[in-house]
């Protein structure tokens, strides 16, 4: 049963990554990339690595997504 959840999460990571590449909006693509990182964090928890999951969730999904979204907003307003 655990393997099924891990495979489902791995498929979700791939789907989010492909969606991030295919989306036209930078904001939506960045959110999709953050979602892929969040799925990876959940996958790490299921595989028994909670320390790696906490790092991935806080830095990969949280901090880097916020920094990229801030940069996209700043460059969009500077361009206008």
Short description:
The protein has 80 residues and is mainly α. The chain is 90% helix and 0% strand. The protein has one domain.
Protein described:
- This protein is mostly helical.
- It has one domain.
- The protein contains 3 helices and no strands.
- Helix 1 runs antiparallel to helix 2.
- The longest helix has 30 residues.
- The termini are far apart.
List keywords for this structure.
mainly alpha
Outline? flat
Percentage of residues assigned to helices:
over 70%
Largest sheet: none
Distance between the terminal alpha carbons, to the nearest Å?
52 Å
Please specify the SSE layout and strand pairing.
Blueprint: H1 2-22, H2 26-46, H3 50-79
């Amino acid at each position: 049963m655990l393997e099924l959840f891990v495979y489902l999460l791995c498929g979700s990571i791939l789907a989010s990554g492909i969606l991030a590449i295919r989306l036209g909006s930078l904001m939506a693509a960045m959110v999709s990339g953050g979602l892929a990182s969040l799925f990876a964090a959940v996958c790490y928890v299921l595989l028994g690595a909670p320390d790696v999951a906490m790092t991935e969730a806080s830095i990969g999904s949280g901090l880097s997504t916020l920094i990229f979204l801030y940069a996209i907003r700043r460059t969009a307003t500077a361009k206008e």
